[in-house]
């Protein structure tokens, strides 16, 4: 009987550490816009728990333009294939109190020709910060329609927003979030 009890507690401890250590991704977005020579510029913003791995950021990190190694690889998931870039980023904001770091980076990319000019770019990982629902593994993906617009003759750009990186809501309350 003691063996079963010890095995049970060992499993509980391992599960506890897995939950504690693995909830650090806080979200992000991917956008794109036309660039020169049939390229597009892919921009992304990611947010992480500040104390997790290589995500530490402070005023010195921002002032020195230090690049954080990030996590994972931005990949083309539809319309082309393969890795585009590592998800390294320049820290732009942080909070000591709320324990987050956020930053941006961009890359110019020349997608291969596809039949419909629709592309999916994204990256996946584990460890979405624990929420009321969700958590664990995640996918951050965008669909880029690179067909030329009839009104401008240029390819479409994704919508962008200049809102704060982290928004908190109290559970059980109704809110309206206006995205600028």
Automatic annotation (TrEMBL):
Alphabetical keyword list: Signal
Record has Signal as a keyword: yes
Span of the signal peptide: 1-22
Protein name: Uncharacterized protein
Species annotation: Mytilus galloprovincialis
Lineage of producing organism: Eukaryota, Metazoa, Spiralia, Lophotrochozoa, Mollusca
